[in-house]
Amino acid sequence: LYVSNHVSYLDIPVLALLTDAAFVAKDDVRDWPLFGLCAKIYRTLF
After folding, report:
1. Distance of CA 45 to the CA centre of its chain
2. DSSP codes of every residue in 12-30
3. 8 Å CB contact between 39 and 29
4. Contact (Cβ atoms closer than 8 angstroms) between residue 26 and residue 6
5. Residue 24's beta-bridge partner residues?
6. CA 3 to chain CA mean position, Å
7. Are 18 and 35 in contact, with CB atoms under 8 Å apart?
8. Does residue 35 sit in helix, strand or coil?
9. Which helix (H) or strand (E) element contains residue 11?
10. Global model pTM greater than 0.70
11. N or C terminus of the chain: which is more exposed, having fewer CB within 10 Å?
12. Residue 13's pLDDT is what?
């Protein structure tokens, strides 16, 4: 289990590239322009 403190917007893409982790986000993120698409690509659980 990894917990990110979100120092920048690059935290999630960097973690996605370095690990085989899935992410958890609030359901609202699914509908955000660009971020929602990226979240789906990174196998985010909503």
Report:
1. 9
2. HHHHHHHS---EE--GGGG
3. yes
4. no
5. 45
6. 11
7. no
8. helix
9. helix 11-18
10. no
11. N
12. 85
Parallel, antiparallel, or unpaired: how do β-strands 23-24 and 44-45 relate?
parallel
pLDDT of amino acid 42: 85
Residue 44, beta-bridge partner list:
23
> Is the distance from CB of 45 to CB of 24 less than 8 angstroms?
yes
Q: Is 2 helix (H, G, I), strand (E, B) or coil?
A: coil
Torsion of CA 38, 41, 42, 44, to 10 degrees: 90
The pLDDT tens digits for 1-46 are 878 787 888 888 888 899 888 889 999 999 999 989 989 988 899 9
What burial class does residue 20 get, using C-beta atoms within 10 Å of its C-beta: 0-12 exposed, 13-18 middle, 19+ buried? exposed
